[in-house]
Each structure stands twice: as structure tokens, then as C-alpha cells.
Amino acid sequence: MASWPKSSWKKLTHVTDWYKTTSSCYVPRWGRLVDRLCSTQNTFKLYRSDSRNTFCRRYSASSSEYYFPGAVGAPYTDKLECIAGEKEGRIPCFRIMNEYGEISSTVSKQHHPDHQLEPVMMTSMYQHMLKLHVMDTMLYSAQRQGRISFYMTSFGEEATAIGSAAALETADVVFGQYREQGVLLWRGFTYRDFCNQCCGNALEPAKGRQMPVHYGSKELNFVTISSPLATQIPQASGYAYGMKLSNSRNITVCYFGEGAASEGDFHAALNFAATLECPVLFLCRNNGYAISTPAKEQYRGDGIAGRGLAYGIDSMRVDGNDLWAVYFSVKEAKQRILETGRPLLLELLTYRGGHHSTSDDSSRYRQKTEIEMYSERLSPLRRMKRFLEFRNRWNEEMDQSYVEEQRRELLSALEEAEKAPKAPLEDLFNDVYDELTPHLQQQKTKLLEFLSRQKHPTESS
Ligand SMILES: Cc1ncc(C[n+]2csc(CCOP(=O)(O)OP(=O)(O)O)c2C)c(N)n1
Ligand SMILES: [Mg+2]
Question: What pLDDT is attached to residue 16?
């Protein structure tokens, strides 16, 4: 690919007339160049900035090069080139801590946990990963015992949730998919809040009208989960656009899986965010499976990060099982989004350690050895535990007593949630609109009439 001929460009000291963002095939993949096109009657001016300077080049409409508005800066060539859709090379995956919990000897100070975090914060992050693991284990069993109707675990993905949540502020608004309960946990959602929602009792904000795991919290800026896949992605672009209009100093964060990235909504959302320059972090948890569909059947090309580049969105790929890589990449992503006012796509490579949900049996479509390999060797929990053990901040005994304490706490929250009353039947109709509409009033009357004619199962016929 041709290099950028800086010599033919005029260097500017002041640029006031930014007009329109474009992408350019001159821009190197990981470069920081930004192009802006400005057109006046017959001339186009192309402004190109790197992180330090801005350059300008003029083109007239009659010029034989560079002025197609659909791909400004595309050089002409008389050699027909078909660019390979499946490239050999892959976007590299950022990793700081290996599977033994050792920190890379060449990592910069800026990305070194020992230089950037207090010990108490490191321990707290690990404890939250453990809490998440305990909660998932116990609520999964509770579903198997018939105590709740449905559950989704995030086994193997503990670092994606806790690492990203710890790098954000609660004022950053989260649009989740359904496997990000760790973000809520980090923000202060309690075991009681989780259990109330999963039991669908009257104490939870949706009053039992949602399926289990469809959490939401206004106070914690976590938008309620929607079942239809990818719903949250265009919503997040729109929300971020609103944040931009209100000059917010926070960002929108949108979590989704690689399977959801096959939905049309994903593409619409990325294009809106790119063109409207929305401060949104698209955070893809690429865990290798969309229920029973493995990633290799889900898409071609270089994963999900490669798609960000196609939309002109800065993109990064990170080891989602490495808590530190997740933490530092999300920190940096947020900073970049706030600096540039543009979206960023972060692909976290991880592995879905459990079944898709309690309605799934993954042994039907993947080998036990595969699960063992990922869950044992690449476990984010094990890596982090070793990291803390090397620093004498944790040991096996502490691990066991912490898990035991959390189990007791979760169990008591679950028992309380089971005993709590269910919301009255009328609440099925309340809160849908500010006032009950005539058609809902009609449905409510019919339902109450119908139920008054039914006998309770304990009554004899
Ligand atoms: C519109 C729509 N289509 C299909 C489904 C069924 N469905 C629920 S989750 C899922 C797979 C999603 O996979 P991915 O986005 O990779 O997330 P993961 O479960 O791996 O975390 C599918 C197909 C749905 N909920 N909504
Ligand atoms: Mg997936």
C-alpha cells in the first residue's frame, strides 16, 4: 500500500473548518490519522491530521485523482487488485498476564498492575471474580432444583466483566446483553438484588415481569436486558449520541457476544456510531459460541475487531481471560473515546465455560476435552489467583474461607427472596403506560373475570 506523501501536503497551524469525517485507504491500520473533507464549489480540500499536525491538500473537481467522495484519498492504480477477504495475518491480541499469572517482562509501566494499582484494589477485583463464580454456581444449582426457572452463568468470562467494570465509572451507562452480571456486581448490585430478580418477587424493580437474569438498575446506570438479541447495540449508539449532545464527560458501554454481531442491528449500530461520532465503547465478548453455533460457522474474516475497522471505528483485540489486559484496554479505550469523541470497538477473546443457559446441554455439540482445556488451562480465576499468590496477598486457605462465606451469604439471600411475596396480579398491567389504556383495562377485566371462575388446584371438582 502506498505511503502517505506528506511532502505534497501543506502543513496547517490552525484548522477551524472541519467538515466531514471520511476514511481513507492511506491510513495505516493502527495509525492515528484522521481525514476531514471540505468542499466548496469546484474544489475539495482534504485535511489530514496525525496526532501532532494537520495538513491540507486541494483537489479540483476536474482533477484525475482523489476526489470521489465515497472513498476520499483512494489512489488510482492500473493493476487490478483483489484484496483477500481471508487474510493470513490476524489483528494481535493484547495480553499482559500469561496463564501462570506471570506479568510480561516487556509490558510498559503504564500497563503494569504493580505500578498502576493499589494492592487492595487488586485483591478486591479477584474477590469480585470469586463472588461472581459462587453466585453463578449456586443460582445454576437453584435452577436445577426447581427453585428458579432459568439462569445463565458467566463461567470462564469472569475477567471480561470485572476487568471492564473496574476500569469504568458508575456514571458510564451500560447496555448489556445478558452475561454481564459481573458488571452489576462490581457496581454494587447485591446478592439480594440478584436473587429477588431471579425469583421474580415483588421486591425487584420489574416486579417479576421479566425472565430471570434480565436485570436492570437505574441507580447503577445499567439498562434493563432485552431478550431479542442485539437490541442493545443500536440503543447504545443512540444513547451515546444523546450523551454527546449533552456534553457528558462519560461514555456509553455496550456489551454483546460475537453471535449478536451477526444481527443486522449490530451493523446499523456501528455505522450510526461511526458517522455520528458517538462516544460509545462496543465491547464484544467473543467466547467462541452462540448457543451451539461455533465461531467458525458464525463468520469468516478476522473476528469482530476486523469489522470495526471496516466501519472506520478504532478497534482493539484483547485477551479476555487476562484481567489486567481487560482492565487497561478498557481504561485506554474510554480515554480515547473522550479525547476523540468517536466510538471504539474492543474485542475480548474468551471462552464460554458453561452451557449457554440452563436450557442448553453443550455436551451435545462440543467435546469435553475442549471444555477442560479452556476452563482449566486458561481460567481467568486461576491466573489471577496465582498473580496474588506470587505477591503473598492470597492463598488457598483464604480462597476456601472466602468462597464458604460467600456461599452462606448467597444462600440466605436466596431463601429470603423465595419467601418474599409476589407482586399482585394487577401489576401485570400497571406501569406499562403512565395511565392504564382502554385496551389494557379491557384485558385486565377479562383476566380477573376468567380467574374468578377457576378453581384452585387444591379445591375438589
Ligand atoms: C433476535 C434473536 N434471535 C435469536 C435469539 C436466540 N439466542 C439467544 S442467545 C443466542 C446466541 C448469542 O450468542 P452470543 O452473542 O455469542 O452471546 P453468548 O451467549 O455467547 O454470550 C441466540 C441465538 C434471540 N434471543 N434473539
Ligand atoms: Mg458467544
Answer: 38
Q: Does 213 sit in the ligand 1 pocket, CB within 6 Å?
A: no
Give the DSSP H/E element, type plus range, for residue 193: helix 191-199
Closest CA to 345 of 284, 288, 300, 265: 284
Minimal-distance CA residue to ligand 1 atom 19: 290
How confident is the prediction for the chain on average, in pLDDT?
A: 88
pTM over 0.90: no
Whether 170 is covered by a domain: the verdict is yes
Name the DSSP letter for residue 212: T
290 lines ligand 1 (CB under 6 A): yes
Q: Is the CB of 257 under 6 A from ligand 1?
A: yes
Percentage with pLDDT > 70 across the chain:
83
CA–CA gap between residue 93 and residue 107 (Å, rounded) = 14
pLDDT above 60: residue 14: no
The angle formed by the CA atoms of residues 20, 22 and 26, to the nearest 5 degrees, is 145
Asked whether residue 92 is assigned to any structural domain, the reply reads: no
* Mean per-residue pLDDT, 134-140: 98
* pLDDT one-digit tens code per residue, 341-394: 999 999 999 999 999 999 999 999 999 999 888 888 889 999 999 999 999 999
The verdict on residue 232 lying in a domain is yes
Cell (9 digits) for 270: 456501528
Comparing CA positions, the residue from 57, 33, 61 lying closest to residue 45 is 57
Cell for 5? 506523501
Confidence of residue 74 (pLDDT cuts 50, 70, 90): confident
In whole angstroms, give the CA distance from residue 255 to residue 230: 9
Do both 38 and 121 map to the same domain?
Answer: no
Look at residue 29 and tell me whether its pLDDT is greater than 60.
no
Q: Measure 42 CA to ligand 2 centroid, in angstroms.
A: 49
Q: Of 401, 402, 156, whose CA–CA distance to 288 is shortest? A: 156
**Res. 452: pLDDT tops 80:** yes
- Tell me which residue range forms the domain holding 413: 109-419
Same domain, 114 and 51: no
- Nearest CA, atom 21, ligand 1: 257
Please tell me if the CB atom of residue 228 comes closer than 6 angstroms to any atom of ligand 1: yes
In whole angstroms, give the CA distance from residue 324 to residue 112: 8
Cβ–ligand 1 distance for 401 under 6 Å, the answer: no
